[in-house]
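explain this chain.
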Amino acid sequence: MKQTLRKLFAPILNIFENNKDTYAYKPSYRTILIAVGSLFLLLSGGGAWVAIQAGQPGGAFPAIIFGGIGLVCLIVGTLGTDKAVANIWKNR
């Protein structure tokens, strides 16, 4: 199942995995990345809900941005290699 999801999200994962630089990885980076991604998705959902309740279609823009960031963080955090996680943090 994980390999199927990795193939599905390969365009996103390849951005962070195809770097030739050295990297420093700690297991806590993955945990923090998943937590931050979850918080961004929560913020996105809350912002979308408030925008809908207020009848402000302009509120969709921040919800889409925060949702996209949250999804990328969760995809890389759960499916990415150690190198991809380290490259998000830019640790070398």
